[in-house]
Amino acid sequence: MKASQLIAPTLKEAPADAEVPSHILLVRGGFIRRLATGSYNYLPLGLRVLKKIENIVREELDRAGAQEILMPVVQPANLWQESGRWDVMGPEMLRLKDRHERDYCLSPTQEEVVTDLVRRVIVSYKQLPLNLYHIQTKFRDEIRPRFGLMRSREFLMKDGYSFHLDEDSFEESYQAMFDAYSAMLEKIGLTYRAVDADPGNMGDGDSHEFHVLAEAGEDELAFSPTSDYAANVEKAVAPRIEDDHAVEEMATVDTPNAKTIDAVSKLLGVESRRCVKTLIVRGESEPVALVLRGDHELNEAKAGRLPGILRPLEFASDEEIIAAITVSPGSIGPVGLGLPVYVDHSAAALNSFVCGANVEEKHHTGVNWDRDAGHVEPVDIRNVVEGDQAVDGSGPLAFRRGIEVGHIFKLGTKYTESMDVTIQDDGGNDIMPIMGCYGFGVSRTVAAVVEQCHDENGIAWPDAVAPYAVHILALNAHRSADVATTATAVYERLLARGVEVLLDDRDERPGVKFADSDLIGIPHRLTIGDRGLKNGIVEYTHRRTGEKEDVELARLDEFLNERMSGSA
Ligand code: ATP
Ligand code: MG
């Protein structure tokens, strides 16, 4: 490709709404352009990267025995009504009507459609296990689309679904998908981590997320530096922290205007870890109280799974709280509360703590559970924090941020049951197949690669997904016939060998060409200028390491061969 013809409009300035490097650099480098909130046009360079990632995903899934299909983006409502999700999906699902006023949605995911397909094409247990995937546009009306391709509304996802007669068969496919995801990310050239994850509202079985490690990641990961243990903070098991504080008498004290743990802790001179906070959330029949140590944060995913609590978790409004317990937030506590209470392990381990007295502007001090607040069965409802021990006993947890690019989990029989898929096994018994579900964000991965592979000058694509392998910069070619003919000859030769090459033949100053080349990040650069050519030399630069080398023209092909096979 010749740059003079390529639509790759580079920009000096970042777009005003861009906060993270991948968004800034993909727009500045002319890879993508915004159409509307959370939707992007892919320009030729961006599309090339997207397709490369897509192909790596496809290769690894095909190798693992999955079969590619293609399902529609516009889905009829009746399938979603059948599974019971039409009413529970909420505003993330974009709904529309056709000319006959029939309801449809734009695919946010594909469980219903694939389950419907399978019940119509599978006639015998001999056809299972079956593992189907497609790579298709998804639309989710995200509450906060942001970070360019990372959290968009329209995006490209690979979603896969497997169907099994028994658990063993499911486990085998799950492991095969786990391995395929690992292989994909390695092939792309990313540093990643597979972590235990919360399956969300999709089930309660095994679930793993694949995270590309990067500062801009929206998720926090906790892992043990000395073992295999790694989990999304949403899921990481929090240890119980013991307390050896002496048992004191309970007392009630005035705490005027002290509505937060910070304020109460300052006013009473008691560390925040010895004060408990009592949060009120919506429950199935009545509000439910959640009690944590003052220095700990509630983990909404964990709490949302507890019996009696509405899922997803929602906090009760001030009005609902006052209606239920006649005291406003800031003075609530577990002593004589009169609501169902869940207490986190570390709050339950405290002796002689401070809590709201359920009377406006009053707190209790020296509270002890069994004696004053009744017996509690502790639960894990907090986020792990710096200093917590890993649940496998391997030592303190470390923390990193990650971008979730893949999520694999067990669906069980949720859809085969609700959509009535039965198959007869070899003994003639009706069986409901067990399903697995495997998602991979193809377009999000474009952003994840940039987050991990960039510097202050621009992107540095790994070879496997770079839009082109070689970038030839012809310096001042309009003034030097030698430069023009040599650059064209090298370009033609590389093309003939099947190398993906971009020739910067534009009438731009060398400074502009260098800056654009750094920005768009093609791994191998050849700079062809008059000065070097006088000595029969072109300059090679490796984008990622910055390493430069003068190469004799006669040796160029051989040199590039070595370089392109030896670097990632
Ligand atoms: P998240 O927690 O980031 O919202 P999710 O749990 O909703 O993700 P899944 O439904 O498991 O995601 O979708 C599978 C994959 O699709 C994700 O792992 C991610 O890579 C990608 N994905 C999900 N939502 C988006 C989005 N808004 N923009 C780009 N990619 C996305
Ligand atoms: Mg989501």
Explain this structure to me?
- The protein has 568 residues and is of the alpha+beta class.
- The protein is 27% helix and 26% strand.
- It contains 16 helices and 29 strands.
- The strands form eight sheets. Strands 3, 7, 8, 9, 10, 11, 12, 19 and 22 form a nine-stranded mixed β-sheet that branches. Strands 26-25-27-28-29 form a five-stranded mixed β-sheet, with helices on both faces.
- The chain is globular and about 95 Å long.
- Bound molecules: adenosine-5'-triphosphate and magnesium ion.
- Adenosine-5'-triphosphate binds at residues 109, 140, 142, 151-152, 155, 157, 200, 404-407, 439, 441, 443-444.
What percentage of amino acids are in beta strands?
25-35%
State the shape: globular
Largest sheet: 9 strands, mixed
How confident overall, as mean pLDDT?
95
Q: What is the CA-CA span between the terminal residues?
A: 22 Å
Bound molecules: adenosine-5'-triphosphate, magnesium ion
Count of runs of 4 or more consecutive helical residues? 16
Summarize the amount of helix as a percent range: 25-40%
Structural class: alpha+beta
What low-confidence regions span 5 or more consecutive residues with pLDDT below 50? none
- Please state the CA-atom Rg, rounded to the nearest Å: 29 Å
Number of strands: 29
